[in-house]
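Supplementary Methods, section 5.1.

A reviewer requested that the exact input to the structure prediction be made available. We therefore reproduce it here, unchanged from the version used in the analyses.
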Amino acid sequence: MKPDFHDVAGLWERDGSLRDIYVQDTEAVHWDRFDQLLSHYECSYTFDGVAAPFPGSRSVLGNREGSHMLSILLDGAVEICCHFFIFEQLELDISPKEITGPLEHEAVLSFVENLAEALELSADITPENSEQTPFLTYVPRSRTWRIHDDP
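The structure derived from this sequence is encoded token-by-token as follows.
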């Protein structure tokens, strides 16, 4: 069962920082599964700020000559962004300003569930750049959410 909108203190607090979604220990197979998952969402991609067709995650991760951004649009007008920082970790970010109520909260948690289940790896929602202090973790093997105490 997904945590409710008000269950996690500070999760969508508008404090000027982003929230991150982390999936650790990613390998080529996980990036391929991520690309397959993207077909279920409206996405746009830019390279050095210029719109371009998305070449696939492994291609992007092999090109360190510029900046990459993949935007994934969820129901409720929530945008989740991936910048493809490192091969071993899938990191996405969300602006808490876009999570205005239960509808957007549910859309994000559903996306995290779909992501974790597609990759067969746990996914954390954390404060920005705080991968060791999650608010929430979704474990696909047991299909359960864990609420962490004060991140």
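DSSP finds three helices and nine strands in the chain. These observations are discussed further in the main text.
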